[in-house]
Design goal:
Length: 144
């Protein structure tokens, strides 16, 4: 193969790779929609939200009809939410009443987040919930 063809092939490969990086960066920066997305908890009250052995992920899902549901590490939760711009509040949430041995405080932290949330922000695949003073209460990550 001549050196000219090798150089052209390398230049093409570099441009193709750069294009892949640009497309990937754009795809990652497009915010996920609040509704219809499975939001896995990664941080609650400043601490990692770690699933307990044998349980599902702590998560939230928002439906377009103003209802939210999820799992707090022990129990299923469901109830209404109100959305106006970047303001978000949860109404009275119902929960199953399973007796769990050790949720390492995740259950209580999750419910406190729902009680105190007043605002949200979505940045790419991250959902952050804040209280009325602007303190971040939780971070969730979009999952497929």
């Amino acid at each position: 193969m001549s050196s000219g063809i090798v150089l052209q092939t390398r230049a093409f490969a570099r441009r193709a790779l750069a294009s892949i990086f640009v497309v990937t960066a754009i795809a990652q920066s497009v915010p996920k929609p609040l509704t219809g997305t499975y939001w896995k908890a990664v941080e609650l009250a400043g601490k990692p939200a770690l699933p307990q052995a044998g349980t599902r992920d702590v998560h939230l899902q928002f439906q377009v009809d103003g209802r939210a549901s999820g799992f707090d590490g022990c129990n299923q939760v469901t109830g209404p939410y109100t959305l106006s711009g970047d303001n978000l509040t949860f109404g009275r949430m119902a929960a199953t009443q399973m007796a769990c041995m050790d949720t390492s405080g995740t259950e209580q932290a999750f419910r406190a987040v729902l009680e105190h949330t007043r605002r949200f922000r979505i940045d790419g695949d991250k959902l952050e919930l804040f209280d009325d003073g602007g303190i971040r209460l939780a971070v969730f990550e979009a999952r497929q």
